[in-house]
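How a chain folds remains the central question behind the approach discussed here. The record that follows shows the chain in one-letter code together with its fold in token form:
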Amino acid sequence: MASRIQLGQRLQGRKTYYDVVDRYTQTRDNLWIARWRSCASAPIVTNVNRDPNAKFVLIKTAPLARFNNEVEALNLCQGHKSVRQLLDVTDSPQSMVLEFLDKNLYEASCEQQLNRQDIKRAGKAALEDVKPNNLLVNLGSGKSRFNEIKLGDLGDSVPEDVSTNTGQHIISAPIYRAPEVMLNVRWTTAVDIWSLGATVSLFVTTSNVSLYAVKLTCYLLRRHIFVPDEVKPDDDRFPFLILMLQIKYFGPFPEKFFQLLDDEGAQVLRYISEQCNGTTNVFSQANSETINPEDRDFICYLMRPDPRDRPSSKEALAHPWLKDVC
């Protein structure tokens, strides 16, 4: 849906006013940077230069159903330190006024590799809809590179109570998508645990990659273990090849998982499993030169093929890997 917001426009929220000063990104027309204004009579500001005394916000538009869903989710998360906060809404045009953070975690990792403590803080902050682009950061100084790490973009979030959730629509980017989603199994919050594991693995398995190489692969994600070689995302084979890589690194699927599938799904999974030629559970066998054993064990703890075998978020937070994270 095309945004009706334009540069230099003054938006009236329910609490105050906002002057649109810049696009947040050139690739999306529903995200804008705006400057907070205390009253309607103040001159409109069109300069994005960051006045240290100015307060900037993010303006986000969305289709009505997604807008209502995200506003509801953000209201439920009001005051949560690990979720980007909803500050206000505007009615004409309809938009969310959100807390502004400097950049997303993936962008930050392209500029400078994350250390293990950064990765652990991000893992702790992640609750749902987990992927690097949805983990937002405010830059810090000194020993801590980031002052804050928060979760953003709750447009696809659903209630944890599965009785109100059909749990069968497609969610998440393919390389972070849990296998049960691709196989049309009714999913639960266990998909978030899988996505967290896929996100953590993106960073810890590239700690020895040069920053130059990291910058070359930004936005292509060629370094992620679930990106198939020489196949583009619009290729019909792409999701099946991802499923094959999931089996290669973390499989095989236990026999009990097939009970969750319909006949077609079971047939597809058995066929893909056969294509792996017995090469499974590769990630757990990685040596200490490839990945820190503590990182490896935590990721394997999260990325169990059968969602019923994955830990809950509470159990994951109690894992020793997160014991030293504030």
The chain has a mean pLDDT of 83. The two ends are 40 Å apart (CA to CA). Residues 154 and 308 are 24 Å apart (CA to CA).
